[in-house]
Amino acid sequence: MVYAFVQDVATSWEQYERVAYGLTHPTPPGLILPLAGQTDEGVRIIVVWDCEQAWQRFQAERLQPSIAALGGPAVPEPTFRDLHVTHLVLGPGQRISDPRPSSPPTQEPVAPRTPSEP
């Protein structure tokens, strides 16, 4: 199952870029889409993985050692919210490793209504 998270980190964009480049080059197995942008408080990070196990492997093998090398977690500690993705649209030619076919909506699409005549 596709897995994602949203994280807010109180850091500068420059610090984020230095750390992120080292963590994502070469691209870790299972990484679908990393997004990041500046906020008033620092940086918001949204990352999509092909499964939660890929994220956990990345966290253990790359992220935790990098955080330790920087002297520990950011202060204040980043907020972290995980998301078990139930809807993901990829562009043409894009694939994820989950072989399950996407299921159709549980309800039929609703046709647009036309104004009724008086």
Notable characteristics:
alpha+beta; single chain; 118 residues
Describe this structure in words.
It contains 2 helices and 4 strands. The protein is α+β, with helices and mostly antiparallel strands and 118 residues long. It has a 4-stranded antiparallel beta sheet with strand order 2-3-1-4. Strand 2 (31-38) and strand 3 (43-49) form a beta hairpin. The relative contact order is 0.23. Residues 98-107 have low confidence and may be disordered.
How much of the sequence lies in strands comes to: 15-25%
Secondary-structure element order, N to C: EHEEHE
Q: What is the gyration radius calculated from CA atoms? A: 19 Å
Query: Total strand count, please?
Result: 4
Note the topology.
Layout: E1 3-9, H1 13-24, E2 31-38, E3 43-49, H2 52-69, E4 79-84
Antiparallel strand pairs: 1-3, 1-4, 2-3
Provide a quick synopsis of the model.
With 118 residues, this protein is of the alpha+beta class. 25% of the residues lie in helices and 24% in strands.
